[in-house]
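Deviation from plan, reported transparently: zinc ion complex.
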Amino acid sequence: MIAAHRGSLLHFLDDPSKSSVDSIFEYYDDGLLVTENGLISDCGDAASLMPRLPSGTKLVQHANSLICPGFVDAHVHYPQLEVMASHGEELLDWLNRYTFPAEAKFANPEYAEVCAERFLDELLRVGTTTALVFGTVHPNSIDAFFRSCEKRNLRMISGKVMMDRNAPVGLTDSPESSYVDSKSLIESWHNKGRLRYAVTPRFAITSSPEQLNLAGLLLKEHPSVYLHTHLSENRSEVDSVRELFPGVKNYLDVYDQYDLLGQRSVFAHCIHLDNEEWSRLNTSGSAIAHCPNSNLFLGSGLFSMKAAVEHGVRVGIGSDIGGGCEFSILRTLADGYKVARLRGEDISPMQAFYLATLGGVRALDLEDRIGNFLIGKEADFLILDRGATPIIKHRLDMSKNLNEQLFAMMMLGDDRLVKETWIMGEKSHDRDANF
Ligand SMILES: [Zn+2]
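Because the crystal trials were delayed, the predicted structure below was used instead.
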């Protein structure tokens, strides 16, 4: 089945912070995105592409819209929906008071299944088509999540939490059981269709040296899986890590000692890093998930995007639900912009939309599959509505150029801006449909 989607069209070819403006993106005011059997088969100016469309192509008109690749959430916890917007604590208290009791419920497979469905509905509603996702310590939390993703044909990465200390009874595993359970989940799910597995120690505080050692062994035995954890989110957390691992150079060094760094390793937060940690993230090729909404909500601190750019470290944007209170990557980017301002830094509109799409995809090492509209990539894309609300319409009508439009979309947009979400060339969310 061949379909051609006509509307304004934007996608990125490279990183605006590194390349010259001309080569980083393609924008067509009247563009055409052609998909065939779930993949991109052409993309460009409608006037030149229309005459060469094969006969029988289904033409889909998207008036007053911007077509762009699906958004990427580089760090999110699917079991934490019910603790979103819980009041009044910093990270470590917040985990004990809200998060751990909520995660304990995932011992029940039926509960996990209901939550996975609700979570994915919400992701698609805000235009997130790929995410790197924490489960709970229970292997069935990952079975439930991946089953729901498989049903919807989504490209997702997830893994069971490894956590053998400093957490309540009922939410801990052991080094051996976490190794065996993770291995079995990797064998069941990694590279099954569009799914990939992430070895997921929660953070250094809740894993013993023995468990981190086995996490490293899992990566060695399965070189194409991911590593997903937290790093340097909160000052008390950093202090606790120093007490638990005396003799390490810094927080990142704990993970480094167990061979957990690399091209498919993603560290959430990275706020309180020293120079040596930044350099090591660069030399190891590891990536960061920047979660500004969560960092502001929990009072964790202000991430430096400038430092990440200067040290050449890949960055994706993460909602960090439920430490974050916003599913929308646009709303999260709006907070990212404010965090940058508070640090005397900047995030340009082009950089923001790059981070939401190709930048996030690069952080997740998936550029060979998704992230832009190059021929052969998987057709996960969004229809953004330029008339989503009266004020968005007014602001965009008043905009003088694409940069102004993108900035207004990022600062004013949310789920209402996302008119449709398409997965592998099929419509998976329609804002205006009566479900
Ligand atoms: Zn998190």
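Residues 75, 77, 230, 268, 320, 323 surround zinc ion (CB under 6 Å). We consider this an acceptable substitute for the interim report.
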